[in-house]
Amino acid sequence: MSLATLDLSQFVSGTNGQRAEFAEALLTGFTKHGFVKLTNHGFSTGNIVKLFSQVVTRHLWSSDNNEML
Prior knowledge:
Oligomer: single chain
Number of domains: 1
Order of helices and strands: EHHEHH
Structural class: mainly alpha
Number of strands: 2
Radius of gyration: 16 Å
Shape: extended
Distance between the termini: 33 Å
Number of helices: 4
């Protein structure tokens, strides 16, 4: 499996051609693997960890999943 690593600054600050290339690579990554690895997105590691922990906590304690616990 070759996961795409995409540089978001290529889309944000790039030329029209770079934006098109980024968009095509993003679509290919989502289609082929369901996700991509993004670099230069501006989120700190601490913010990413906090976000994921909130998502996991909400998912685990949602009413739909309480029956499984």
